[in-house]
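User: Can you help me understand a structure? I only have the sequence.
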Amino acid sequence: MIDYDIIKSPLITEKTTIQKEAFNQVSFKISREANRIEVKNAIENIFNVKVAGVRTMQVKGKTKQRGRIIGKRKDWKKAIVTLMQGERIDFFEGV
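Assistant: Let's start by predicting it. Here is the structure, written out as tokens:
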């Protein structure tokens, strides 16, 4: 897989912002077929940082109902990347 096919987008929420400040961890939405080693290599190549560890998890899509119609959002995969001491990835700094 190519690095940009593995990493789909960063996850920017209140919880991930706290993780970034407190534990130097960044969260990404990744390809469902990607494993930890591929994610680590992709992050190091794209952002030029050193990665200490990667945790991945499958996120189940929620069931949504609008009137009588019931649908389901897609399942997706999430990676929490712990960066080495002194490394940073800035997405929206100075906006």
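Now, to help you interpret it: The radius of gyration is 15 Å. The domain at 3-83 is CATH 3.30.70.330 (Alpha-Beta Plaits). Let me know which part you'd like to focus on.
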